[in-house]
């Protein structure tokens, strides 16, 4: 949400949709790559054998989505089928109300409902 606002992209614009795809593709690639590096050193997670990932199927394959050519998916697929991945679960998009408060960003991926709101915490009620 914050990124779209800073870039002045309407939430439902083609630019926002493409940026969202680009960001998540990059996050997913990095997560799979790092997990594969860990698997090379420590071995794959216990039930990796027989998983879609062990057969070279990434999440986007399971959903019929074609990734961009920004990243070398073929090389990563080969690495994953050879060494596995260390983690069965890789990404968990946030934010939550707590992390948003700490990081100073919006607590949702939805458009802002207001630019000001009240937050109640143990220390009291504050206008944000």
From TrEMBL:
Q: What is this protein called?
A: Ribonucleotide reductase large subunit domain-containing protein
Q: InterPro entries per the record?
A: NrdE_NrdA_C (IPR013346), RNR_lg_C (IPR000788), Rrm1 (IPR039718)
* Residue span(s) of domain Ribonucleotide reductase large subunit: 73-95
Q: Which GO terms describe its cellular component?
A: ribonucleoside-diphosphate reductase complex
Any one GO MF term held by the record is: ribonucleoside-diphosphate reductase activity, thioredoxin disulfide as acceptor
Organism, by scientific name, is Pinguiococcus pyrenoidosus
Give me any GO biological process, just one: deoxyribonucleotide biosynthetic process
Supply the alphabetized keyword list.
Deoxyribonucleotide synthesis
């Amino acid at each position: 949400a914050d990124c779209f606002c800073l870039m002045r992209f309407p939430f439902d614009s083609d630019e926002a949709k493409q940026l969202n795809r680009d960001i998540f593709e990059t996050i997913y690639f990095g997560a799979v790559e790092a997990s594969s590096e860990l698997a090379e050193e420590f071995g794959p997670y216990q039930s990796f054998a027989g998983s879609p990932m062990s057969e070279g199927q990434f999440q986007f394959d399971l959903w019929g989505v074609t990734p961009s050519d920004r990243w070398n998916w073929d090389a990563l697929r080969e690495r994953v089928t050879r060494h596995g991945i260390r983690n069965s679960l890789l990404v968990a998009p946030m934010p939550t109300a707590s992390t948003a408060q700490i990081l100073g960003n919006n607590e949702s991926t939805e458009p802002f409902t207001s630019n000001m709101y009240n937050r109640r915490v143990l220390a009291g009620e504050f206008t944000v």
